Amino acid sequence: MSEAYIFDAVRTPRGRGKKSGRLHTVKAVDLLGTALRGLQRRTELDTSILDDVTIGCVTQVGEQGACIGRTAVLEAGYDESVPAVTLNRFCGSGLEAVNGAAAKVASGFCDLVVAGGVESMSRVQMGSDGGAIWDPTMAFEYGTVPQGISADLLATLNAISRKEADSFAARSQLNAAQAQARGAFKKSVEPVYDQNGLLLLDEDEHLRPETTEDSLSQLRPAFQMMGTQFGINALTQKRYPQVERINHIHTAGNSSGIVDGAAAILIGNASAKDTYGLRPRARIRALASVGDEPVLMLSGPVPATQRVLRKAGMQIGDIDLFEVNEAFAAVPLFFAKELGVDLARVNVNGGAIALGHPLGATGAVLLGTVLDELEARDLTTGLVTLCIGGGMGIATIIERV
Amino acid sequence: MMQEQFKVDFDSDSGIATIWMQMNGRANKINPAFGAGFKPAFEAALKHDGLQGIIIASSHKDFCVGADIDFVYETRDPEKLSETIAGFHQNLRRIETCGKPVVAAITGSALGGGYELALACHHRIALDKPSVQIGLPEVNLGLIPGGGGTQRLPRLIGLQPALEVIAQGQIVRANKAVSKGLVNDLAKTNEDVFEKAAHWIKSGPKPKQPWDESTFQFPGGVQPDSAMGRQLFAGGAAMLVKKTNGAFRAPEAAVQAVYEGSHLDFDSALKIEARYFITCVISDQSKDMIRTFWFHKNTVERQSELPTIEDARIKTVGILGAGMMGAGLAFICARRGYQVILKDIGQEALQRGLSHVKTQVETRMRYLSADEKDALLGQISGTLSVDDLSECDLIIEAVFENIDLKHRVIKETEAVIKDDAIFASNTSALPIADLAKASVRPDRFIGLHFFSPVEQMPLLEVIQSKQTSEETLARALDFGRQIKKTSIVVNDGYGFYTTRLFSAYVMEAAQLVAQGYPPILIERAAAAAGMVVPPLKVFDEVTLSLAAHGFEMREHYDGKPLNEPGVRLVRALVDLGRCGKSSGQGFYEYEGKKRVLWPGLADLTESQITETDPHVLLKTCQDRLMLSQALEAIRCLDEGILRSTADGEIGAIFGVGFAPNTGGPFAWCDRRGLGSVVESLDGLAHQYGERYQVPDRLRQMAQNGEQFFPRV
Predict the structure, then answer these.
(1) Which CATH architecture is the domain B316-494 placed in?
(2) Where residue B1 falls among pLDDT bands split at 50, 70, 90?
(3) With b meaning 16 or more CB within 10 Å and e meaning fewer, what string describes B514-536?
(4) What is the mean pLDDT of residues B291-308?
(5) Average model confidence (pLDDT) for chain A?
(6) Measured between CB atoms, which of A127, A134, A241 is closest to B618?
(7) CATH number of this structure's domain B499-703
(8) Which of these is catalytic: B67, B104, B327, B334?
(9) Which whole number is the average pLDDT over A197-216?
(10) N or C end of chain B, less CB within 10 A?
(11) Nearest alpha-carbon partner for B465 in B487, B440, B486, B437
């Protein structure tokens, strides 16, 4: 088996995922096209040598439907010989695209692949793709609930308090603001322009640097009404009869932001490296996906991390920096508690609470973020992990070369 | 020769054919005879020259009361069911696609399959009388509508309203049916129904159902495959689980049939419904529910083994005690035509009682005019003087549960009432024979045990002591019928039947708490089993101090001290002033509308458990809660308190909220297997003593492989 190298990683800035967001007028295909063009330009890639493009995208309806990856390849001016596939592993899609590409090149079935993801949450509403998850039988047989309820359940079961969650969220905002201020994201961000060359956005837009733990404490729990008045909490009783009452700790302020964004990463094997003279920044050491309990849904990063460490033959202490997607504050807090990880090594430049979580793109975004920071700190090993809808988890370990 | 079950009249002037359903027996039912008879009648109607439209009508009192339950109960054959349903569907499809306008003349109740027949018509006109009931009650028997109801109703009135009707098994009166859209029009008299039907046909309506139009959209604005549609189903499923705790499969199947069917064309949707209908029909749960809610209930209500009387001679009812129960009784008696005299010893209590009655009239009888309401209230008079009871034919005492007080009240009342009058005690536990010791006419003394809130609870437990005469019993039963209660008659003994069963339930819960089981798991275990109220919650509601008082009574009647962990726990809670909801603290802590289990319970436990898996613990709690109730029911049968298992099932479910999904404690035992019941009880008896001792007869039955009810 060959190495799977990361040659470069780029992303668009993340725009606020609403009408007033600066990327709202940009079609999803153009967002992804921006990332693909940026990657090509920076690596001076002759795209005709690409074996494949794998793109994560969650809500594949409307303008994000019908294999947006292939349309974006054409939009970005890549060679027409470049195929693309669009995949959906919910919030793990972007990292799944990376992991799949890594597996393809490591096996030698492919030599050079672009992996990435896209989600314009302001333009294509989350959940608008329907799906079997909405079938009432899921409620009757499994008791699955919307993610916010799962997040509150995760907090309740692990005694994670509102204060801890708010404190973590404030930290995410602070870390992100400081990182943005010192230009930590500049290296990988590809600004988005309109067709006349006017700049729309060149840095992440979702941050609220003025946030404090105190200001967060004023926010109303986001999922309490849904949970109690609409009876959703009752669904969790079948699996968790011991929970008398779910503690609704999550708010708009300590949950991930809704944003628009895209990312692209060039991944290839030794043969590609040698043949085309590409300079690797890192290699993918191990990858793993897991299924976990679907009602709790968001605990997946823990078993995914355990599995990826096992595959890599590593210990948790071998990892220098972690990116644990901040879908909800309880997720990284649970992760750190459960695996005994010092929060000082987790999401050091903030996370989705401050920066936003463009569903299908996030995994690829985080991989680029951790790589940039490993380089900035001259560290070696990073681990990216995300919780995933339906009770799954995904993780990837990279190592600088 | 039997008359034809379907008759067709044709009026050549108007061009209207009327199909009269006049099936053998007292009602029209959906059964093989319907299948065989309806089709040729309908085809014959269609053949008339100059046909303008068809009226489907009933020669019986009811329009059509639905499926033949005997057939549904006995079959477990999906293939045969599939064929039968397909035949019924074809008949109904023929009605709506025949090319002529068809109208249902609903001159009497249209329920279940009967209403589904009406749904297949292009128009429905109902007689506006309180006796005319319309709806789809199938889920109450563990079934779902099987004649297209889950598909036609959502397409007629919209997804959400239809889901409510179907998943809750709603039955409504004609006037409510028209406002919900279940029928199109109301008529004042039978003749009006037909006149309106003819008028509708004359207006030249398009003989096509909306769902057969290519442009069909669900009414109400919510389409199934839309964000709102998905949320509707997801929310509906959650609300259902919140209510049923997953213990009732039929409403879930109904939601599922509506969900899946609504995404499809009509004919495919019918196939989906048929699948879920069959799943329900062949399930144990529907068998158990049908046995109890249909067969047992009918048996109990027929009272064929019980004495009857031509004239019960009850016109005026005197009620002693104007609390919630007394005032509630006053209301339901007046409502059914009795004159009522409500007596209390305090002016304030009496006023509270009378204003409770007024509130009941205002909220429950909105359909009455102001004059009618006044007239109803006029039937009730309040008094502080026992002398005013002299005209009463029946006295019901609902005073505090204290034997001395009751004895005093009995004496002073009997002194003034007519010789012929019946004295009834609404005691929930005290033996009637003991109360009757104060009576000079114990043959006219009886127990009438009502349940709170009496306006809603359907059961009346009638207690006949050894001295209660057959005539008194007959008169009391007639009274029970008049006030629309379902009566079971039991023999005398402390706690009768229902109170013993209830006590077994809540005391087992207390026992589990004392033994260290997590209280929340006890509550959840009960809910998951289908119990209507969790035991610790309801224990708090009936107050722990009353229970503690009950321990003393039981010790008195059993002649031995009660000294079990659960009893000690309840006594300890009472000593701590934690007497239940009314004192603001009990098993739970109360703060406004919120209620949280008291964490301090953990300090009152007498033993610890080592098991930590909540699912294992839940299963144990569930088993013990159900076993202890079943055991008590079996003991009541053995001791002759219960006169039949049917009474036992009905009393348990309608009186104390025993899990309706099981069919009752005896059906629960059958379904679990008596061998397994005995084995589990033996295990518990070994561990915890005689509280769980298996009655000989049960052991015998288990050894002989017997059951309480025949297998289906």
Answers:
(1) 3-Layer(aba) Sandwich (3.40)
(2) very low
(3) bbbbbbbbbbbbbbbbbbebbbb
(4) 95
(5) 97
(6) A241
(7) 1.10.1040.50
(8) B67
(9) 97
(10) N
(11) B437
SS3 A382: strand
Q: Which residue of A has its CA nearest to B613?
A: A242
Q: What does CATH list as the number for B6-282? A: 3.90.226.10
% chain A with pLDDT above 90: 99
Domain layout of chain B by residue ranges: 6-282, 316-494, 499-703
Residue B61 pLDDT: 96
Interface predicted TM-score (ipTM) of this complex, two decimals: 0.92
Structure tokens at B500: 């013993």
| Distance from C-alpha of A352 to C-alpha of A94, rounded to nearest angstrom | 14
- E-state strands within A179-320: 192-193, 199-201, 259-268, 282-291
Residues 199-228, chain B, touching A (beta carbon < 8 A): 225, 227
Closest CB to A140 among B237, B243, B520: B237
- Among A128, A130, A140, whose Cβ lies nearest the Cβ of B241? A140
Residue to substitute from A125, A244, A295, interface B, most B β-carbons within 10 A? A244
What predicted TM-score, i.e. pTM, was given to this entire model? 0.94
State pLDDT tens for residues B253-298: 999 999 999 999 999 999 999 999 999 999 999 999 999 999 999 9
Q: Which residues contact A339 (CB under 8 A, 6 or more apart)?
A: A302, A305, A306, A316
pLDDT tens column, A68-95: 999 999 999 999 999 999 999 999 999 9
- Alpha helices (runs of H) in B57-157, residue ranges in sequence order: 69-74, 78-96, 113-119, 149-157
Q: Give tens-digit pLDDT for B63-73.
A: 999 988 998 99
Evaluate whether A263 touches A356 at the Cβ level (below 8 Å): no
> Which residues of chain A lie closer than 8 angstroms to B259, CB-CB?
135-136
The C-alpha of A370 sits at a distance from chain B's nearest C-alpha, in angstroms, of 36
Task: Say if B316-494 and B499-703 have the same CATH topology.
Answer: no
Chain B's closest residue to A132, CA to CA, is B230
